Amino acid sequence: MEISIAFQTLVFLKAVLMGVSLGVLYDLLRAVRRSLHAGAAMTAFCDTLFWLGLLGTLFVFVLTAAAGEGRFYVLLGAGLGALLYFIALSPPVLAVAMLLMQGGKRVAGFPVFLWKKTKPHLVYLKNAGKTHKQTKKNLKKPFHFPEKRFKIK
34-67, pLDDT tens digit by residue? Predict the structure, then answer.
């Protein structure tokens, strides 16, 4: 069975696009790690997700686009695509992803912000009735401390 040069070139170009898409996936996971100030566990989790995505994508790509034949030029094309992406497109894509993550954090954190701002007022309102009752009770007793009781002559 003969494989044409045109087919190999097309598979190589598709592999380059796959490398670019894997670079985008890496930058998205990097933005998540940076915006959440990830520790070692979160970094390991994101790296595991990336490698599982890479291996799954490569497996499906070889089965579908490369006609089930794992060739060296597929890996070379994916590596070249990732390299071109990280040289040319990674900084602006990472900046946009970070902006989106910061906006997402603000949207997700807005209910927490509202709760923190209103909680002291709610506690004051909850205790206001108790304080009012205690104040009325204390005003009824003019000298509620025994040490301060004395007779006016």
Answer: 888 888 988 999 899 999 999 999 999 999 988 8
Taking phi over 0 as left and psi of -120 to 50 as alpha, with beta for the rest, 39 belongs to beta
For 68, list phi and psi in degrees, rounded to 5. Answer: 80, 10
Residue pointed to by tokens 């089930």: 68
User: Per-residue DSSP letters for 50-74?
Assistant: HHHHHHHHHHHHHHHTTTT---HHH
State pTM to two decimals: 0.66
Could you give the C-alpha distances from 48 to 52, 53, 55, 82, in angstroms and in order? 6, 8, 11, 18
What is d(CA 152, CA 1) in angstroms, rounded to the nearest whole number?
A: 121
User: Rounded to whole angstroms, how far apart are CA atoms 86 and 30?
Assistant: 13
Max Cα distance, the chain (Å): 124
